[in-house]
């Protein structure tokens, strides 16, 4: 393929990126439902014809933003086991966990989505994507305890996303490295050895 053949693809990529950035910028100021196509194209410095050449509506543009984010999320999630045949969770190292680096690199976007009315859509997309790769790519070893693997997968995903969204909600109070270290410690905690102090009401 010549350089001339590649130019249209680069133009498409540039225009889509500009439209995505425009929508995100507008979502920092107002709700998704209140944003018009006209505002998006004016912010991106394009015309409506360019917009409709790529998207049927602003919902399709939002879906494109979420899809790209999910693609990068899954890439970061796969980092610890990509290229291996056997993945032992007990041997997971903090520096191999890349998901918090991904979240932090896209902190502004995640913060905007978290504070918008499209958050349920984002959460569902993340949940389904992570569940799919856990089921398709990671086959848990049966340890004889009779664990329901589907319930185990759902529990693990909700626990991870709960940690991620707590971190975002608290304005990334901890560093990605600290979050990665804590995740590994949490994963390797033996529930039978965990102890809690019962706080009783004072009379």
From TrEMBL:
Pfam families: TetR_C_8, TetR_N. Residues 13-73 form the HTH tetR-type domain. Keywords: DNA-binding, Membrane, Transmembrane, Transmembrane helix. The chain crosses the membrane at residues 151-168. It comes from the Bacteria. The keyword Transmembrane applies. Residues 36-55 bind DNA. PANTHER family: ACREF/ENVCD OPERON REPRESSOR-RELATED, TETR-FAMILY TRANSCRIPTIONAL REGULATOR. This is TetR/AcrR family transcriptional regulator.
């Amino acid at each position: 393929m010549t350089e001339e053949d590649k130019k249209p693809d680069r133009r498409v990529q540039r225009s889509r990126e500009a439209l995505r950035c425009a929508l995100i910028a507008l979502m920092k100021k107002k709700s998704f439902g209140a944003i018009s196509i006209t505002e998006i194209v004016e912010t991106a410095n394009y015309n409506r014809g360019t917009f409709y050449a790529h998207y049927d509506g602003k919902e399709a543009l939002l879906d494109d933003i979420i899809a790209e984010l999910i693609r990068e999320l899954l890439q970061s999630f796969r980092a610890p086991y990509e290229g291996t045949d056997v993945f032992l969770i007990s041997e997971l190292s903090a520096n191999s966990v890349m998901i918090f680096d991904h979240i932090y690199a896209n902190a502004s976007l995640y913060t905007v989505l978290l504070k918008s009315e499209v958050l349920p859509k984002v959460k569902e997309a993340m949940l389904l994507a992570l569940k799919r790769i856990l089921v398709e790519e990671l086959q848990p070893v049966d340890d004889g305890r009779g664990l329901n693997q589907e319930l185990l997968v759902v529990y693990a995903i909700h626990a991870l996303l709960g940690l991620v969204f707590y971190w975002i909600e608290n304005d990334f109070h901890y560093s990605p490295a600290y979050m990665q270290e804590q995740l590994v410690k949490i994963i390797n905690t033996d529930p039978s050895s965990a102890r809690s102090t019962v706080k009783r009401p004072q009379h």
